[in-house]
Amino acid sequence: MTSSDAVAQHYSGRGLVDRIMAALAKAGHEPQVLTPDILAPHDEFHVGGIEATHRFSGRLEITPDSRLLDVGCGAGGPARTVAATIGCHVTGIDLTADFITAGTELTDRCHLAGRVTLHHGSALDMPFDDAAFDRAMMLHVGMNIADKAGLMAEVARVLAPGGLFGVYDMMRVSDGEIGFPMPWAPHEGVSAVKRPEDYINAAEAAGLTLVAQHDETNAAEGFFQHILATKPPLEPGQTPDPFSNLAAHIRQGILAPTELIFHKAG
Predict the structure, then answer these.
(1) 121-151 pLDDT, tens digit each
(2) Higher per-residue pLDDT: 239 or 214
(3) Looking at residue 2, what is its pLDDT?
(4) 52, 78, 108, 131 — which has fewest CB within 10 A?
(5) Per-residue b or e along 223-260, where b marks 16 or more CB atoms closer than 10 Å to that residue's CB
(6) Crossing angle of helices 16-26/36-43, nearest 10°?
(7) Using only C-alpha atoms, what is the Rg of the chain?
(8) Do 209 and 249 form a contact (C-beta atoms < 8 A)?
(9) Which residue has the higher pLDDT, 124 or 228?
(10) Superfamily, domain 3-264
(11) Is residue 176 a contact partner of residue 252, using CB atoms and an 8 Å limit?
(12) Contact between residue 247 and residue 227 where contact means Cβ atoms under 8 Å apart
């Protein structure tokens, strides 16, 4: 099994839409009358959820006329949020076919098919023309992509001169052993966590310049307080659940939810 196959297998899960619809019905929502806000607890998988999406996308200077690329779009939650909020067109691409199938149906149910288009494919070999997008974003995806240089080169290729690329990933910020499972990986073989400088060096080699960097640990604290409050205490020898494990690593200062904003000259 290749590393990309292992990543796709980790995230695959047929019946995602059915599970989301069941949860929404239990909460009293009408499945045919959906919005990104209603779906957010179920399709905004990154730390901070929809609030982080608004904060992060706000730093990319997106306008209604922008052509935005969402790299590793998952089931399309952030893409739908940005499209509905700003009114631009968002193109997403993800390695996991189940996400694209589910995301396309959810987009239709949100009546956003005219503004959001999702594609199945690899971030390292995207089926898009050179300079096809004014803006690009990537939320909690780079932890599964070992080839940071290839990733940055491919994003730089499809980004128009003058464009911005925002990365919001979990990044290593100090030494210390990383234990698994994590939300993005059941074991070390599927994980590609790196330091901010590894992203920055790869981006610079691809012709992208860092213009802003933000450690969002403080902004994520409420998110983790909620998660930890819903989890029972660990028994001796018990394996932690992925999100509680991630929260522990962040509180230990080993990992941090980090934003990097890059600019392509032109």
Answers:
(1) 999 999 999 999 999 999 999 999 999 999 9
(2) 214
(3) 42
(4) 108
(5) bbeeeeeeeeeeeeeeebeebbbbbbbbeeebbbbbbb
(6) 120
(7) 18
(8) no
(9) 124
(10) Vaccinia Virus protein VP39 (3.40.50.150)
(11) yes
(12) yes
Query: b or e along 15-29 (b: 16 or more beta carbons within 10 Å of the residue's beta carbon)?
Result: ebbeebbeebeeeee
Q: Are 228 and 244 in contact (CB under 8 A)?
A: yes
Report the candidate in 23, 1, 22, 26 with the shortest Cα–Cα distance to residue 12.
Answer: 1
Residues 40-82 have pLDDT tens digits of: 988 998 999 999 999 999 999 999 999 999 999 999 999 999 9
Q: Which amino acid is at 236?
A: P
151 close to 123: Cβ distance less than 8 angstroms: yes
What region, left, alpha or beta, does residue 51 occupy, with left being phi > 0 and alpha being psi -120 to 50 degrees?
A: alpha
User: What residue spans define the domains of the chain?
Assistant: 3-264
The type of residue at 229 is A
What the block records as the tokens of 79 is 């893409």
